């Protein structure tokens, strides 16, 4: 049974529902809505299913966000929304309309095409596998295949940033900078990748490392989290970044998505435009 | 300079633009649009910026998809769209309206809240770090902390699936099943995680492994890609799944997003509803 005390949003899709879910999540961040439940209805195939879902929505007083590419299902949900006085928001419809109107293409009307097993898909899977393998300085023999080499001292978010970029199809290797240890010669022989050096304000890094020590049950007073040691590490890193010609990015108080956005922009700057599906 | 020969879509945001980009990507999959360029304009702050972007859009004949949470910027883009006859699609606005109308909350109108460094954010980062560390049977000492243990023979998409689930905040360990090798005792002592066993049609797996061998420059006739060996491996895996009480999922011809969706559904079934931000 649905909990009728809390606010609920239905996400409906004739595919997985990831896209509508992403928009709902972005919207929720704009409200102080601590107890909003999101119920996802995936792979909707029939008008009957839609009727049942919309009646349930009306009953519990929720609204519906949907991505349906089959015109008959879209029409059904629109009609039911009016009949039952339930708000129903079409996420892809308006963009599809803009597309048809601006470029005069006809849509395919096949659910699930976003997740089809095509070249782009396999390229992304390969990039993720590569990136996991080349995390934290591992698998040096494969570095030559990297699109991006990410460098940074401990706790500058190398791993999640690498993974986020891998989801966009980039093969990312990352390497942890440790004071007094120069990167291996192989690092200086990479020709085809972009070098990104991560930096952070020493104060922030001290805070993050102290938290880390606490989480590990260690005293936060260890040298690892001291301002002196952190400052030295960051200076040592800067020297390596200069040697490698890294693009240096300050990640202080920046979310992974923000930094990844900047990196993708830098990569595409030379081309100015990046193409979807490359 | 923009290439005026090809179709272009502008993605505009007062934050990163990930959400609008996701909707555009989903929409593009519905068209045979090989050469559509997507240009992203992030961190838009002023009405002047919007005027310039919209004039550029009118000049090259493209349309605009936007997520703007500041009302004055939303109003500006609406007006400019009418003035310049450019299609402009508001992605979050209609969902925000439905939210306000249905639940009577007021939005915060602060850009970038989706990417703020809050508890959810750090939980996700931790999950990704955990999952990378526990890939491919590694870091057994940490298995006790797993939310999900994924098992499968070679090439059943364990790594990308684990990473995709980690992005949703789940700590995932994955373990490669190798014939005649029983998982370590530690596997049978895990109490708090969900066991997922991946399987696939032997024919598909043979095809995928043969491709893999080809990509590695090896003859596709190796036992690794033979129907006999693959069938044996899958049967051995099934026996282990039974011992562990795994939920068994057939991933033949299924995209990672599809399988991940099924897993999340299974996890939330006991609760029926899952909460955003948990």
From TrEMBL, chains A, B:
Leader sequence residues: none
The keyword Nucleotide-binding appears for this protein: yes
Keywords: Kinase, Nucleotide-binding, Serine/threonine-protein kinase, Transferase
Pfam families reported in the protein's UniProt record: Kinase-PPPase
Lineage: superkingdom: Bacteria
GO terms for MF: ADP binding; ATP binding; phosphotransferase activity, phosphate group as acceptor; protein serine/threonine kinase activity
EC number: 2.7.11.32, 2.7.4.27
Swiss-Prot/TrEMBL catalytic activity: N(tele)-phospho-L-histidyl/L-threonyl-[pyruvate, phosphate dikinase] + ADP = N(tele)-phospho-L-histidyl/O-phospho-L-threonyl-[pyruvate, phosphate dikinase] + AMP + H(+); N(tele)-phospho-L-histidyl/O-phospho-L-threonyl-[pyruvate, phosphate dikinase] + phosphate + H(+) = N(tele)-phospho-L-histidyl/L-threonyl-[pyruvate, phosphate dikinase] + diphosphate
Residues annotated for ADP binding in this entry: 152-159
HAMAP family: PDRP
Recorded family membership: Belongs to the pyruvate, phosphate/water dikinase regulatory protein family. PDRP subfamily.
Free-text function comment from the UniProt entry: Bifunctional serine/threonine kinase and phosphorylase involved in the regulation of the pyruvate, phosphate dikinase (PPDK) by catalyzing its phosphorylation/dephosphorylation.
Protein name as it appears in the record: Putative pyruvate, phosphate dikinase regulatory protein
Record organism: Cohnella terricola
Classification of source organism: Bacteria, Bacillati, Bacillota, Bacilli, Bacillales
